[in-house]
Amino acid sequence: MFNRRDFLTKIPAALLAGGATMHLRDALAAMEGRSATVAFPLDVASWDPVVSANPTISAIYKCVFDQPLELAPGLGFAGSVVAEHKWLSKDCTVLELTLRDGVRFHNGDRLTSDDIRFTFYDRVKNDKASLLAGVWNKIERIDTPSPLKAVMHFSQPMATAPAMLADIPAYILPRAYYEKVGKEGFMQKPVGSGPFKLLDYQREQRIVLAAHEGYWKGAPKLKQVVFQITKDPTARAAALQSGSADITMNLPVREAERLGSLPDMERHIDPTTGVILLQMVNKGIFTDRNLRLAAHHALDKPSLSRALFNGHATPIWLPAGPGMPGYVEGFQIPYDPAKARTLLAQAGYSESKPARFRFYTTKGVFASDFDIARAIVQMWKRVGIEAELQVLEGPMMYEYQNNGKFDGPVLKPFNPAGGDPGTYSGYMLDPKVSFSIWKSDDIPPRLYPLMAEPDQEKRLAGFRSFDQWQVEQGYSIPLFLGLSTVVSRKALRFQPYRSGVLMPYSWA
Fold this sequence. Notes:
alpha+beta, D-Maltodextrin-Binding Protein, domain 2, Dipeptide-binding Protein, domain 1, Dipeptide-binding Protein, domain 3, eight-stranded mixed beta sheet, four-stranded antiparallel beta sheet, 17 helices, disordered N terminus, SBP_5_dom, TAT_signal, ABC transporter substrate-binding protein
């Protein structure tokens, strides 16, 4: 972060580098120490915030757009655009939202229930291929009895709706402005109600955000945030160390540890609510439960964490870790190569007659994805499993998933922000939704009653039992909690959120 003595050196250089797009007021904000620069790994794919469910990109979208509900730094709901929410039905099919009065979009328009209806119903109806539709296609209608009251009617129970209203990609868009300028106009000049508004955008280079002084929570302490697009992690580390950035993320663990040991820096290597797991498929040799469980018992997760994450990645045996609502103390599918070989033998396989299949992964989509996959292949090989590694680009992963093309296990992240177990298994295993890769008839009778349970404690207890059952069937193999690696200057007073999303509004 800049101070006054930086003015004669850094500010003129910044003005020359940015040309006309960096104005004197921006320079003055930087001089006063009210500007922060983020060395950031990704650019936005679009200024339509529903096109990406990537939690990294959410750092930018959450600056510009509000969500109906908000999460506290830990878990649970915090103050949000929705002042109150409650179920009006016992089967979780009618949800009432009472909006906070006085919330304004960046162009001055008032945020009302009509914007909720536009975002979560009209746009879903008109663009059924969007990520928003993948979550909210159960909405039959949204009534707007008053500007501050919206009532969501679902075609089937959706107990997870409040959690999903605080999750990605549930960002509120302004109907009047969007319809006035059209989709292309909105992409050129997006307007939200978030704590920052877009000041300048240079694709694949930088995003400059200015404080929204009329923000309903109060104006941000930072008057400007610059996201400098820096895809290479080595370059991000160098930007932080040289002083051209104040904070960066998604560094290799050992690099985060090194930078965090410098005098003016602090590191945050924290588990998130995301999970890394193997989604199994109900095809071919994987219809045999013995084979699926053998594949789980063959994995030494603590060793993987030590080798690839210096021990910081938290091994999990359910799609939840300590401190999350779905966590069950003491539950494990232990690393046991002898048991894996016994189960393989019962399925008709051995080291001399190995089980062979394709195993799908990405490379570079999340931290160490390809390295995790290669290590798993080697662990499987030791017990009699020969996996042929298939690397797919992110878009191809979605195409395979949506069209049922997977014929073997898939290594992937799943990143619900709120940690609600219904947003994990409720989507990963529901055979009716596109997120599901494993599909079997024994799931709906166990899952659907939980999706209709309005009693929170009863629902969470039910999901803990459900997840123990599905893991014991080998329907999924949870591996690790997500891992956030952030290094920042101490003066920024960075505060980590359990979701793993950067929140510049909270920085000082």
